[in-house]
Amino acid sequence: MSAQTDSWDRAALCIALLRFAPGYLGGSIIRMRASPQRDAVISSLEPLRMRRLHPTISDEQLFGGLDLAATLNSSQVIENKGIFETSCSAVLAMAERCPSDLAAKLAHQLDRDIGHCIVALDEGAEQDEATPPALSERLPFHIAPEGRIPADWAPVPAGTSTVDPATVTSDPDDLTALTILAAHFGIDSLRAPLLALRVARTHAAFHARTILARDDLETAASLVFPHRATRVPQEAETESTPPPPEPETETDSGAQESLELPDGDMLVDAVRALLPPDILAGLVPAGTSRRTGGDGAGQKRKGNRRGRPLPSRPGRLDGRSRIDLVATLRAAAPWQPIRRQAQPDTSGLLIRPADIRLKRYQEQSDRLLIFAVDASGSAAVSRLNEAKGAVELLLAEAYAARDHVALISFRGAESEILLPPTRSLVQTKRRLASLPGGGGTPLATGLQQAALLATQSQSKGLTPTIVVLTDGRANVALDGSTDRTRAAEDADKMARLIRSQGFLTLVIDMSARPQASLKTLAGHFDGPYLALPRADAQALTGAVSAALSV
Q: C-alpha distances in angstroms, 465 versus 287, 453, 455?
């Protein structure tokens, strides 16, 4: 209970400092799901009179745009003022869904240092559903109180202080101490100690002090560093009584400075006490985390019909492209006085072909994972059970990345689509309830079926990826004959065909010992090869996720 109460006390202090100097601090992240507790936190920021932003907000609303009616009436470019025309406070709803381009634009506004304040409402439920780093690393606070809100909770009163935080005097060693402290906790961004120094100055001004005190540094470190820390520093072996400080002397420019805090480990202890308990569990190796946030995992395709809007481009009308009227008028407006002098008898707006601007969109296609599973031999039941578990685990995660899954089984002399492309977990379990096994290994036939399904899916707007699970002992050719040499040749031909279509392919060797033939087959695919003998569904899912960045 005390830890939860402390988290609400820290939230109250962050809000009080933010209300005291919003433009100097820059904003905060509020990571809370929609609830009465979050409503109470947001209502405490009402004195800031914040404008509301949405992840799909346009550039014209942010930075201003062409006033079409006024421009047509005056024949001169007249623009509307955007939200960031002057310093303002804004709240970004659904910050975990904020696209990277919008995060970069908001980060640029904060870097201009003209008094903007942005509060990001983060409703992410998982570790990887969070505000984009480009924006989060520029916001000093991370408000995420735990448990129920105390009955008497309210922001800390500011009193009557009129001290400007920018005028608070600090010692150069203060920034050094904060920088070294950040390095102790694995924080590699230099913005963190700079933000901590701003918070320390704001805390001093909040209490009507004009000189930075030790309490200000400890408070700033405890508010800025814990949610940014990536490691827990080891306890350093120190002497019981530190030696007296040596007098300052000039040192060589090439001498190395040790990462020791000027005033001991009190700052380290203050930050370590507030570290979240799952900090190490949330760290994963680079390249093994799946991408989420609703942007899909397929290829990006540009067009002029649907998708995310892109900046318009000059072009000619061909009956299929869509004209960007506002951009066209913006391009034509500056030339109206000159064109009016050249054609004084012509009324209306004078448009030239060079003024035409066409709309562009970028569409993110859904990805289809096609599992081609070898169901031959006495060990087929084991392999199919592994494939079944892997498909169900991937389907459980498919919604966040908008992935589809299909399953192809090949045995005897033929292949069969057991599961068409789907995202339904119920349908998958029904189809995978009982799978047949036994017979020869028609690897080439399975690859042919996977290639046909991938081609059909691509024509429907999906981005197919083929995952082949086999022991590599192909013994049935495409014509159904049992000839190992010919079966291997047909499999290689199908691999080259799939490669020529540009499909990403992963080969998983499920045999007891890695097979050189499968490694060669993966080379024909120009794709990765994984040897996973006796792998269970969890290991298979992790391997697929790591290899394909699922």
A: 18, 11, 11
What is the three-class DSSP state of 66?
strand
Asked if residue 288 belongs to a domain, the reply is no
Tell me the CA distances in angstroms from 149 to 40, 41, 154, one per residue in order: 9, 10, 10
d(CA 15, CA 145): 12
CA distance 157 to 13: 9
Can you tell me the distance from the alpha carbon of 219 to that of 261, in angstroms, rounded to the nearest whole number? 16
State which of 118, 143, 158 marks the end of a domain: 158
Closest CA to 32 of 55, 49, 8, 60: 8
Dihedral of alpha carbons 29, 550, 497, 461, sign? negative
Residue by residue, pLDDT tens for the chain (550 residues) are: 466 778 888 899 999 999 999 999 999 999 988 888 888 899 999 888 888 998 888 888 888 877 777 777 777 777 788 888 888 899 999 998 899 889 999 999 999 888 899 999 998 877 778 899 999 999 999 998 888 888 888 888 766 788 999 999 988 888 888 998 888 888 888 899 999 999 999 999 999 999 998 899 999 998 999 888 887 765 544 444 455 555 444 444 443 444 455 544 556 666 656 655 544 444 333 333 334 334 444 555 444 444 567 777 888 877 777 888 888 888 888 888 888 888 888 878 888 888 888 887 665 567 788 888 887 764 455 555 666 666 666 666 655 566 788 888 888 888 888 888 887 766 666 666 666 666 788 889 999 999 999 999 888 878 888 888 887 778 888 888 888 888 888 988 999 999 998 888 888 887 777 788 888 888 888 888 877 665 555 666 666 666 665 4
406 touches 423 (CB < 8 A): no
Number of compact structural domains in the chain: 4
Please report the DSSP string for 406-439 in residue order: EEEEEETTEEEEEEEEE--HHHHHHHTSS----S
Report the C-alpha gap between 401 and 423 in whole angstroms. Answer: 11
The three-point CA angle 332-338-339 to 5° equals: 65
Task: Print the domain residue range for 507.
Answer: 367-548
* 243, part of any domain: no
Examine the domain organization and report whether 176 and 91 are in the same domain.
no
| Residue 386 CB partners (closer than 8 Å, separation 6+) | 469, 510, 535, 536, 537, 540
